[in-house]
Each structure stands twice: as C-alpha cells, then as structure tokens.
Amino acid sequence: MNDVTTAKAGGTSLPPTRERLIRAAAGLFRNKGYSGTGLAELLAEAGAPKGSLYHHFPSGKSDLALAAADWASGQMLLLIDASFAPAPTFREGAKTVCYKLAKLFDKQGKWSGCPVSATLFEGPENEAFHQHAAHLFEGWITETTRHARRLGLPEPEARAAAENFYILLQGGWQLARVRRDSDVIRGLYLQMQKNN
Questions:
Q1: Pick from 5, 187, 178, 7: which is nearest to 99 by CA?
Q2: What are the C-alpha distances in Å from 6 to residues 28, 42, 50, 147?
Q3: 125: left (phi over 0), alpha (psi -120 to 50) or beta
Q4: Residue among 101, 98, 80 nearest 193 (CA)
Q5: SS3 for 94-118, per residue?
Q6: Rounded distance, CA 182 to CA 111, Å?
Q7: In contact, 151 and 90? CB cutoff 8 Å
Q8: Alpha carbon distance 43, 58 (integer Å)
Q9: Domains of the chain by start residue, with CATH
Q10: CB neighbourhood size of 29 (10 A)
C-alpha cells in the first residue's frame, strides 16, 4: 500500500485535480476521520481551487469520501495480492500482509486508521456509507478467500479463514493506533497460529 499523501512538485508533474482531491482526502480521513477534516484543509492539502471539489464531486465531501475509500481500498487490494500471490501457505500470506502494514506504520510515522473505516464509519450516520464500506470489506474478504482456495483451503474453510483474518486485523489495527506500536500488527500472525 502506498502512502496516501498528495504528490509534490519537484521534477514531476502533479496528478490531475480529481486524483489529488481523492488522495488528499484518503490521507486526511485516515488520519483525522471524516468529521475531523474540513473542506478548506482538504482543498489546501490537494492544492485545488474551491470550485474543483463540486466540479468533480457534485455532492461534495460525501461523494469525495466514497471515492477516497474506493482508492484506499484499491491500495489494500494491491497489498493483499502482493502478499498472498507468492505465499506458499495462507498463513504466510497473512503474515506478509501484517508485516507490510506494520512496515507502512513505521515508514509513515503516522498511526492512521483503517482507510475504509476511518473514512466511512467516522462520518455521519449514513446508510450509503455503511453499505459502501460493507461492499469494500467484502472485496478484501473475497480476494483473500480466492487466495486461500488457491493455497489449498477448501470452502467454507477458505472464507472463514479470510473473515477471521480481517476480524483480527481490524482489532489489531485499532490497538496498534492506541499503543503507537506496529508490533501489535506483526503479532497478529502469532495469534492466527493459536487459533488454527
């Protein structure tokens, strides 16, 4: 998973405004939550003029939140695939996911929340947000289940292993944030061994 900050000028051109808005929102929502992020702050982080938000996202912040969650979820799907594709076993793939997330915590020096839950659960009580979050989490579970089956786990054990992994991961993510300790995420692998 890549850092979700906006691209900076310095020899390379900036991404288009829509992409800058999405990446800025993904980073700010992860770090501050939906409700804790103001529009002025978001526009400044993206380096975008005020009218551009509503040009690209007619419903404003809520449309942008959905797009930011999609983008961040896509980054997580890339991490899942990169972790499980070369793995010889489901446990090794899960261990790699944990280690990559822990490394990301260490590299960024930020104790950010899960990109989907920080964006869509910390926002207003919004049924569309909840349904969208369910859809995105289902995508993570489906992709992980596909790898579990490929690695020899039969159905329904493959799906159960994927669901249990994300249940542990979400709890571990929160505890790592509270403790500011990436070893919590690394330790999830050991917890998985105890449960299997």
A1: 187
A2: 10, 11, 17, 31
A3: beta
A4: 98
A5: HHHHHHHHHHHHHHHCCCCCCHHHH
A6: 9
A7: yes
A8: 15
A9: 65-195 (1.10.357.10)
A10: 30
pLDDT tens by residue, 74-92? 999 999 999 999 999 999 9
Contact 57, 64 (CB under 8 A): yes
Could you tell me the two tokens for 116?
């989907």
Residue 3 confidence class, pLDDT cut points 50, 70, 90: very low
Cβ atoms of 129 and 65 closer than 8 Å: yes
Q: What is the pTM of this model?
A: 0.85
Task: Judge contact between 120 and 130, C-beta under 8 A.
Answer: yes
State both tokens at 12.
């390379």
